[in-house]
Amino acid sequence: MDIETLRNYCISKKGVTEELPFGPDTLVFKVMGKVFALAGLDSLPVNVNLKCDPGKAVELREEYEALILPGYHMNKQHWNTVILDGHLKSDFIFQLVDDSYNLVKAGLTKKQQQELKDLDE
Questions:
Q1: N or C: which end of the chain has fewer CB within 10 A?
Q2: Which UniProt keywords apply (predicted)?
């Protein structure tokens, strides 16, 4: 998967914005101002940090040990770095993005959740 495919998928989600708050090398995707994905733009292959349920994070790292690693510069319990070198299927990566988005969305305040629900209505 390339960075454009990842970017297009992330920004297609409701309430998502993209920013470069850490400089030109890290693209950050947020839902209602909360980070759910960070993509390294200067790394080859492209990698993305995604939030993950702690138990599932460990399982994924064990099953895909060369492709899913503890989150680089992140809380290793809750974040994974996923290497996008073509070995993982796009549908699987999209599911990991969905999981991250949904975890962050679930942690929004009730007010933020209502604002997100009200978007595009």
A1: C
A2: DNA-binding
Residue 93 main-chain phi, psi, to 5 deg: -65, -45
Domain holding 43, by residue range, is 3-107
Specify the CATH number for the domain of residue 50.
Answer: 3.90.1150.30
Please choose, from the candidates 88, 86, 116, 84, the residue with its C-alpha nearest in 3D space to the C-alpha of residue 101.
116
CA dihedral 14, 17, 18, 22 (to 10 degrees): -130
Residue 100 main-chain phi, psi, to 5 deg: -65, -50
The four Cα atoms 54, 57, 58, 60 give a dihedral, to 10 degrees, of 160
36 in any annotated domain: yes
Per residue in 59-117, pLDDT tens? 999 999 889 998 878 878 899 999 999 899 999 999 999 999 999 999 999 999 999 99
